[in-house]
Amino acid sequence: MIREDFEYEMRLSRVNEFPFKEIIKSNKDFKEAFFKEFSELSPRPKLDLYYRNFISDEEWAKDRDGHWQSIRPSTGKNVMANFIKETPLAERMNDLHLEFEELKYKDALDKKYYGRYLEDTNTAKTLKDIKNKIDAFEGYVLLNSNVDKYDVYAESFCESLIYLTSQLRIPGLKNLLLNQFIDNKSNSVFIIKGMLNQEFRRTEPMERYNILKLFADKLLLKEIKNTPPDHNKILSEISESENLFWKGLPMEVVIKHFEVLTIRKSKNGNVFLTFEQFLSFLKKGFLNDASQLKQKINCVNTEKGFVIKRFHEFFVLATSQYSHPNKTAKFVSLFVDCFDNWPANSIPDLFKPNKSSDEW
């Protein structure tokens, strides 16, 4: 139900309510991260769900087609909206709306008519703020012709834009939006409209805009350069690679199984693997990248059995769900070839179930 509601909202939401929607729709990782945020919203009364319970898709389509045919002018003259007759479906919708509001007022509305709204998400709200900020930036040259002050305004704008994009919870979206702004070539609707209403040399606003944007682009490029690598994007790319350790087991499963090593902390206070160590392990152990050096898991000696347990659990996963032969030698070698914490001959004795009582 939540997924259906989400797809419906994504399909029908307007640009002014949800700017940059196409960017999220076209990126699988962005869309899934946005769905997660959407699913965490508290439901509230939703008129669309009430309509959809009483009006079928076929009725919507029939009404839309019939309505268009009825108002389409045969003479080529304009038809005033005030003289368009309301359709039977529109009248029915008005009645349903009144019913809905009455039930809501009486607190008698069935919970199945509660749903979520894209505009309630922090992402949609922040994207709207970002769009407004960019619109103001593009219109600035029409109100201020003194280019000597453009660097000050550009700095203030960039600080605001960087702050807003940093509030986005979707990994990678910040840099993509900043890069999109940089790549956007002076085609501001605000400037074009402004030129129709003011008397000056036609190229003048565009020239000023290019000066202003040069200041902003320089600052934003510096921000992008200083942004740490996008870990989720890197792992997403690796998840699409072929697992050369065992081709029947998707890399996405490998990542999900071992990623806990980058989250769980050892008794020494450090995560068992930093992201860089984890990345090296994935490349060396599963992508056959011989250039990767052996890593050392960050743990104390008393955690040896606990660490090996995670690798034994990987063996169980591969044999029970992904048809790998029931032989441990290859999995022992996976650990020995990628990590040098302990002598190789000490690993097989621990590569058995129940060697540690702690759970991952």
Structural commentary:
The chain is mainly alpha-helical and 360 residues long. The chain folds into three domains: 2-117, no CATH class; 122-227; 233-350, no CATH class. 58% of the residues lie in helices and 1% in strands. It has 16 helices and two strands. It has helices spanning 2-12, 21-25, 28-39, 47-54, 57-71, 88-105, 122-143, 150-166, 173-183, 189-197, 204-226, 231-239, 251-258, 275-286, 304-321, 329-338; strands spanning 44-45, 114-115. The protein has a two-stranded antiparallel sheet. The chain is flat and about 80 Å long. Residues 68-83 have low confidence and may be disordered.
Keywords:
360 residues, mainly alpha, 3 domains, 2 strands, 58% helix
What's the structural blueprint in terms of helices and strands?
Elements lengths: L1 H11 L8 H5 L2 H12 L4 E2 L1 H8 L2 H15 L16 H18 L8 E2 L6 H22 L6 H17 L6 H11 L5 H9 L6 H23 L4 H9 L11 H8 L16 H12 L17 H18 L7 H10 L22
Antiparallel strand pairs: 1-2
Largest sheet: 2 strands, antiparallel
Shape descriptor: flat
Q: Low-confidence parts lasting 5 or more residues at pLDDT below 50? A: 68-83
Query: Structural class, from helix and strand content?
Result: mainly alpha
Query: What's the total number of strands?
Result: 2
Report how far apart the termini are.
32 Å
Count up the domains: 3
Strand line-up across the major sheet: 1-2
Please compute the radius of gyration using only Cα atoms.
Answer: 29 Å
Helix content: 55-70%
DSSP helical segment count: 16
Which oligomeric form is depicted? single chain
**Mean pLDDT rating:** 86
What fraction of the residues are assigned to beta strands by DSSP?
under 5%
SSE topology string: HHHEHHHEHHHHHHHHHH
